[in-house]
Amino acid sequence: MVTDPISDMLVQLKNAAMVGKPSVIVPLSNVKMEIAKVLLENGYLSDVSKRGKKNRKFLQCDLAYVGGKSRLTEVKRMSKPSRRIYQGVADIRSVRQGMGLAVLSTPKGILADKQAKEQNVGGELLFMIW
Predict the structure, then answer these.
(1) Which helix (H) or strand (E) holds 120?
(2) CB distance 3 to 124 below 8 Å
(3) Residue 2 has pLDDT above 90, yes or no
(4) CA-CA distance, 128 to 66, in Å (whole number)?
(5) d(C-alpha 34, C-alpha 78), whole Å
(6) Residue 31, Cα to own-chain centre: how many angstroms?
(7) In Å, what is the CA distance from 45 to each residue of 17, 31, 35, 84?
(8) Which of 22, 42, 107, 114 is the most core-located residue (most Cβ within 10 A)?
(9) Which domain holds residue 32?
(10) Tens of pLDDT along 75-96?
(11) Which CATH number belongs to the domain containing residue 109 in this structure?
């Protein structure tokens, strides 16, 4: 049994990117779907789709490659089940001088750092990706 399914999904994406796999299939949940949408909007994934039958659904995430190199190079999980990290709007900083992305769980849904600042909301810092 996986105790942190978000971390499991992120590690699967990172490992697939490191070996050059075109896609990753992970078990479906609403939170994972929202995270995949944020990664798709910001260019880390090229496509996201639901697959499977009614009681065994999966999420297929196609990785984005530019010139044969993956856009995703590193993922750092910040808030874990054992230690939650929350940030207000004033505390949200750019990742890698704007070359990375921080993903937050806010009252308005799961948002990237720039979207959270625009909508003036803070929340739980889930992970950083670059």
Answers:
(1) none
(2) no
(3) no
(4) 20
(5) 17
(6) 10
(7) 10, 16, 11, 26
(8) 42
(9) 5-129
(10) 999 999 999 999 999 999 999 9
(11) 3.30.1490.10
